[in-house]
Amino acid sequence: MSALMLYHDTYGCTGGAGASAPELVLLHGWGLHSVVWDPVVPALLEHFQITVIDLPGLGRSPMPAGDYDLDYVIAHVLRVAPARAVWLAWSLGGEVATAIAARHPERVAALSLVASNPCFVQRGDWPAAMPESVFRQFRDLFDEDRDGTLIRFLSLQCRGSARMKEDIRFLQEIMYLQGLPAPKALRAGLQLLGELDLRADFARAQQPLQAIIGASDYLVPAALGDALKRLRPDMDLAVIEGSGHAPFLAQPELFLQAFLDFAREHALC
């Protein structure tokens, strides 16, 4: 494996548990980086020690050599993640975390997936996803105008949010805060979103499992909740009203309540 390591940082619990608090990993989605979690990190730190990780080529992470596929991302993420933790993962990061939970169960105590679809693009037997024609158009636009497509993607993520303007402004402010994303990482990330089908991993994962979905998400339809329940009937499902693709931005209080209720139910904090 390359000597280059992904950017990661760990923050100590500010609550009563202190250094004995459980570990929590935060994984971001396509085109962004771990700063996207900043609005909810202080509240989470009252209960957990937190490790944030920037995916390869995004944020402050370098681009290690190798084929940028799912195995590549998993290997580099696990290299810097705690030995065992609760994972809270958004969108593409949720797909990575789903695969880790199923294939490396010793590393994942529990998994909370935020606006994450194990099969992001529709298949004949999986309608609760983005239409293939819409995804293909988005991918083609990216090839023609990378920066413009990134900005458009921010708007799509915030569509349906009760505070859409504020959310877009925040994402615009942080998009290039840690430098330019590597074109290879963006292109490969889109390829992963278009090709991955992790429904078997999702169903096979044995850990406590939660899905948090925005009721008005343009990218991951709320109908996904019922489809996921059929794969894992015992999973916890929270649908956040007044939220699009980023419920931790649109409705941070409701998001935190849903996640912390799940964590307490399973004695995770």
How would you characterize the overall build of this protein?
There is one protein chain. This protein has a single domain (8-265), classed as Rossmann fold, CATH 3.40.50. The mean pLDDT is 95. The protein has 269 residues and is α/β, with parallel strands linked by helices. Strands 1-3-2-4-5-6-7 form a seven-stranded mixed β-sheet, with helices on both faces. The protein contains eleven helices and seven strands. Helices cover 41% and strands 14% of the residues. Helix 9 links the parallel strand 6 (209-214) and strand 7 (236-240).
List keywords for this structure.
269 residues; alpha/beta; Rossmann fold; 7 strands; 41% helix; 14% strand
Would you tell me the structural class of the helices and strands? alpha/beta
How are the strands ordered across the major sheet? 1-3-2-4-5-6-7
Q: Could you give the distance between the termini?
A: 34 Å
* Beta strand %: 5-15%
Q: CATH-wise, what's the superfamily?
A: Alpha/Beta hydrolase fold, catalytic domain
Rg value: 17 Å
What would the principal axes of the Cα set say about the shape? globular
Largest beta-sheet details: 7 strands, mixed
Q: How many domains?
A: 1
Order of helices and strands: EEHEHEHEHHHHHEHEHH
Give me the count of strands.
Answer: 7
Task: Tell me the name of the CATH class.
Answer: Alpha Beta
Helix content: 40-55%
User: Do you know the CATH architecture?
Assistant: 3-Layer(aba) Sandwich
Number of H- or I-type helical stretches: 11
**CATH fold assignment:** Rossmann fold
